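Journal club side-thread
Mid-discussion, someone asked how the predicted structure for our own chain would compare to the paper's figures. Pasting it here so we can look after the session.
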Amino acid sequence: MNEDTAQRIAEALERLAPPPHPVPDFTSATAFVWHPDPDQLIPVPRVNRVDLDLLIGIDRSRDTLLANTRQFAAGMPANNALLWGARGMGKSSLVKAIHAAVQVDHPRLCVVEVQREDMESIGRCLDLLRDVPQRFIMFCDDLSFSHDDAHYKSLKAVLDGGIAGRPDNVVLYATSNRRHLMPRDMIENERSTAISPAEAVEEKVSLSDRFGLWLGFHPCDQDQYLEMIQGYCDAHGVTIDNDTLRAEAIEWQATRGSRSGRVAWQYFVDLAGRKGVTLR
């Protein structure tokens, strides 16, 4: 093969190879969504969230996560956090609200949302975040794994750090309805059919052990439910007499068959619409 032929082959291979991904502009926003293939961090100019003061009935979890986030934003050691428990009780809302609250005093604090199905590419995402002046909350919402799901191995690499170690400027916050990130019936089934029951589910169950903070979210009582709605009314200037509010709110939750922060918000959206109040 002569030199000209080799040069043409090299140039052809260069054209076929994908161009290097540009370094994201982390000054363009404080919130990003990770999208692989091609790898990119998409800035989110306006985050869908509520004020921290409007999250009722989760005071202990709020204070613990807020303190942990402030430590992290200030460059101090901080734990990864798993927010687990009842549906609709403000787990993901708390993460977004705390980012907004802490970001006021620490403008370099960013949040990066990663979808569960994109976990296998999370190492490449970390490479883009490493060695930049910003600090990042990597946020994975509604995290759980099935028996044939290997994505948890990628998450373990993030939590354990691997050889390179998790970047000092990244902390992981995940939400899940399951404390151990997998269904209880799956745990019991694998234990009962395994040759070594104690080891059968250890690899998956131990995933949750790698979160330094476990913050539990439990169903709210009726008083907390009504307090949530009243807080929304006060914040958005919706006026309604107490007796009517109580009767309508209780009827609303009865038709849903559940009581939670999400149900409280859904009732309030309906109420605001009937009152002609625009929500911003």
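Post-session note: The first helix runs from residue 3 to 16.
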